[in-house]
Amino acid sequence: MTDTARPEPTLPPVPAEWAPHRAMWVGFPSHADLWEDDLEPAQAEVAALARALAGPGAEQVKLMVGHDDALPAARALVGGVAGIEIVPGRFGDVWLRDTGPIFRTAAAAAAFRFNGWGGKYVLDHDDEVAGQIGQASGAALTTHDFVLEGGALDHDGAGTVLTTRQCLLNPNRNRGWKQADAEAALATALGARKVLWLGDGLMNDHTDGHVDNLARFVAPGVVACPMGFGMDDPNAHAYDQAAETLAGMTDADGRRLKVLRIPSPGRIIDEDHRTVPASHMNFLIANKAVIVPTYGGPAGDFAVQALQSAFPGHTLLGLPSRALLTGGGSFHCISQQEPAA
Questions:
Q1: What is the pLDDT of residue 12?
Q2: Which of the following is catalytic: 300, 333, 336, 338?
Q3: Is 225 a catalytic residue?
Q4: Does the predicted model carry a pTM greater than 0.90?
Q5: 241-261: b or e for each residue (b if 16 or more CB lie within 10 Å)?
Q6: Beta pairing class for 335-339 and 315-320
């Protein structure tokens, strides 16, 4: 079986990302020892994202700065911009999707143990981020005693959850977990009615295959999934396998999924000629815009055009994310939304 239905949970499911937001949290690159020469370019990319979210995106942006040394840069880039609040805080790095809470409603959020993506990057204060955001938002925070990152899941708002076995069942997260254990935990903590299981994620993704780089809900019963771009796309097989699996699935309400194929960035390499996990699937859905990370070349424009059909009421914007990618992720990874209700 590739997907499993469970009994109806007692709590409402996590809202879909396209549901109205009260605010959008965004992490600001703050540590020179982590980002080195990429610090200022990454800060500029995040500032551009924050301005797009506050402008055409119609979001109230809470830009979280993780170290006092980075506050002057944040103020210089976005200080005084309407719709952007600079929030001093503490984090190891910017990946708030994984370290922050997952909101069930405006008044309630779930927090989880965070172990640095299976012990790869254990940094001071990352395990405190969920508490900081919960307190600042005024949401009651329920803490669950298992390891989970927000980027490992995607939600349709009606209790259907997308994930990958590579990440969620990885023994470096919750040793001994089987598929049924994970499904029971997601039902209790996040209102999951049905979990849809994919296999592996992108090559060299230190998250062990987060689904927000591989497949995303874009509407009820509709999932976007990449298709290979270029003759040497290192993830072409993984994309095709995921799309084929999704096409045979149904959601929690029994609808057979429709799969929207989006051009991938193709092979993107770093300065050491290593393939990096660049993905247009790391787009961010704002109240009135969808912001798509781009990495140079024509594929970004093609991806923006393809996604426009799924979001006819939104402005589609492609913004550069090449410097941010040097840290291992992009726009969805550094953000977390507060629902409006």
A1: 87
A2: 333
A3: no
A4: yes
A5: ebbebbeebebbeeeebebbe
A6: unpaired
